[in-house]
Design goal:
The chain is α+β, with helices and mostly antiparallel strands. The protein is built from 21 helices and 18 strands. The strands form 5 sheets. A 5-stranded mixed β-sheet has the order 2-1-5-3-4. It has a 5-stranded antiparallel β-sheet with strand order 8-9-14-10-11. The protein is globular and about 70 Å long. It starts with a strand and ends in a 10-residue tail after the last helix.
Length: 470
């Protein structure tokens, strides 16, 4: 199929199998080898590029792992590799990087420069914490991150002279963060000829892909030999909405869209902090709600949150919709209630009542960029000390993501006390069946889940737990 997009400062059209990933295209066809091929799993960030889309009169840029990005995801967009930041002298980001000796072998450097530049493009006010978070998805094995952080500090100190009313792109161009051709990108995009060709099965195989952050790791070779249909949406307002006392997500909603959603932050104020533990910025820019569900991982982070919110899955086949509680969607390990040619269209959960509290806990070997050993979420509706309702989910302790039904039912309709919680804990062992693996022994996971459940109640009833529960 014909792929048309803007690559750095030029419009390009290429004919490609739409299962190709962007990394292979920019390195092999356009010889832009500053974008490195590292892990090919979205972990190292060496392949990071900027993807810009034109919406509502402005360009919006995201930092993406090009090793996991289906090529047809960039149709009509602006792709920026590290070469696309070149100017007559080093960019401001590059110069601070050099001045602070933040690069040794240099393999990771292009990806880090891209990630920092994306942070500066996407924000109007800067702080060190968020700047550091912007490079969480970029690993550096030889320099050490102290000098990289020092380069961030000096960079942010240099970005404090924006005048009132100065347009953001113009300011970044004046400061040599980006070249001046960025101002011409909307015009270049408007002149692209966009093809909407559909692809039939190849070798009897076809895939429906949204984010692709897992399937392009697990089945990349298969995807190269198959037809790929692509689902994508960058409209926050259409992706997340409230209707009839329910909050809805389209299946293509990304994790970062949820983190940046005013709707979600009004329901769960700490949602941004919880989802910081979900992969890297690059992964969150692509990973979707639907993908997190149908991946059917026992430790899926957002699935854990949705289970505690008593979510429903809305399925679609031949224009016919059916709904099923998410807690009943999972049947066995990697198996779920989804028939052939049926897709997850959207997910919804009822808006919580008053006196509603939510908490999410996750333990992994690394705090960031790691899958959970055990995770759990809890939603509670409480009147003083009386528990009107509670739902607790658990991941990593069974073949599927669980709702702890017996525990939740026992705690509902009771006044909270240490004794009630201790008694309810007895049901937890009956509901779970953890196995020993690289993330910990079965015994460790049992103990860990109980400790994390205790963390929920320490947050819900900080003045009521007087003894060590376990």
């Amino acid at each position: 199929m014909n792929i048309s997009f803007v690559l750095n400062d030029k419009s390009v059209t290429t004919f490609q199998n739409n299962s190709t990933v962007l990394l292979d295209l920019i390195r092999n066809e356009y010889n832009l080898t500053g974008t490195k091929e590292g892990c090919r799993e979205g972990d190292c960030g060496a392949c990071s590029v900027l993807i810009g889309s034109y919406k509502d009169g402005k360009m919006i840029y995201d930092c993406i792992n090009s090793c996991l990005l289906p090529i047809n995801a960039v149709i009509g967009n602006h792709v920026v590799t590290v070469e696309g930041l070149n100017q007559s002298e080093l960019s401001l980001v590059q110069s601070h990087y050099v001045d602070n000796y933040a690069s040794q072998c240099g393999f990771c450097t292009p990806g880090i420069i891209i990630s920092i530049t994306n942070y500066l493009l996407g924000n109007y006010k800067y702080n060190l914490r968020d700047a550091k978070d912007s490079i969480v998805g970029n690993l550096c094995r030889c320099t050490g991150h102290v000098s990289i952080i020092e380069s961030l500090k000096s960079l942010l100190e240099d970005l404090n002279d924006k005048s009132d009313g100065e347009e953001h792109l113009s300011y970044l161009i004046r400061k040599r963060v980006i070249p001046d051709y960025f101002l011409r990108i909307p015009e270049l995009i408007s002149k692209l000829t966009i093809s909407n060709e559909s692809t039939d099965e190849i070798n009897g195989k076809s895939f429906l892909v949204s984010g692709g952050t897992d399937i392009y790791v697990q089945k990349q070779d298969e995807l190269y030999q198959a037809a790929v249909s692509f689902i994508d949406s960058n409209d926050y307002e259409e992706n997340i909405y409230i209707s009839e006392d329910k909050c809805f997500f389209k299946a293509s909603t990304t994790i970062n869209q949820i983190m940046n959603s005013n709707i979600m932050s009004s329901i769960i104020p700490d949602i941004n902090n919880y989802l910081r533990l979900f992969g890297s910025n690059q992964i969150r820019n692509r990973a979707t709600v639907g993908g997190n569900i149908v991946n059917a991982s026992p430790i899926a982070d957002f699935t854990s949150i949705l289970l505690a919110l008593n979510a429903e899955v809305h399925l679609l086949k031949n224009k016919k919709e059916r709904k099923i509680p998410l807690k009943d969607f999972f049947i066995a390990h990697k198996k779920f209630d989804l028939s052939e040619n049926e897709i997850v269209e959207k997910v919804s959960f009822p808006l919580p009542e008053k006196n509603f509290f939510f908490n999410y806990e996750k333990v992994s070997k690394r705090e960031y960029l790691d899958i959970a050993s055990v995770n759990t979420s809890a939603m509670i509706i409480v009147s003083e000390n009386f528990i009107d309702h509670i739902t607790v989910s658990a991941g990593g302790v069974a073949p599927i993501p669980l709702v702890l039904r017996k525990f939740s039912e026992f705690m509902t309709g009771k006044y909270f006390s240490d004794d009630i919680l201790i008694r309810a804990m007895n049901s937890v062992d009956e509901e779970i069946s953890p196995i020993s693996d690289i993330r910990g022994s079965a015994e460790y996971k049992r103990l860990l889940l109980k400790k994390l459940i205790q963390c929920h109640f320490l947050k819900f009833f900080p003045d009521k737990i007087e003894t060590e529960i376990l």
